[in-house]
Amino acid sequence: MDVTAILETIWSVVNSPAIIALLAGGLLWLLNKLYAAKPAWQPMEGTIIAAVKWAEKEIPDDTPNKALVRLNAALGYVVKVYEQARGPATEQVKAELREGIQIVHAELEAAGNLDKAPLQEAAA
User: Fold this and answer.
1) Could you tell me which residues come within 8 angstroms of residue 59 by beta carbon, excluding any fewer than 6 positions away?
2) Same domain for 59 and 28?
3) What pLDDT shows up at residue 115?
4) Domain range for 25
5) Residues 32 and 47 in one domain
6) How many domains does the chain have?
7) How much is the pTM?
């Protein structure tokens, strides 16, 4: 057998309906696994938004390490709600929630939803 005959045989096997169905099934299985692997914070996004906005209002700008204090306050609130709904949160879940808080905070800030101008004007 020469190389052309070997390649034609491989091509005919790969293009058989059974192999195509097997490859399509494997791809669908993989996509379902990837779609199902959502971070723990996504179902809690509404709670995270509320916690971030609350922490921004309640913790003054002149607080030392204000970003860390706000993050910890928001995380405490979100973990409390998470544990009421789903039971104890593992360290991995807490890390995912912390990451979610940071992502949501950045999105809110970029969208201008954390603008404190009305509060600062009222204080002036």
Assistant:
1) 66, 69, 70, 73
2) no
3) 61
4) 3-36
5) no
6) 2
7) 0.63
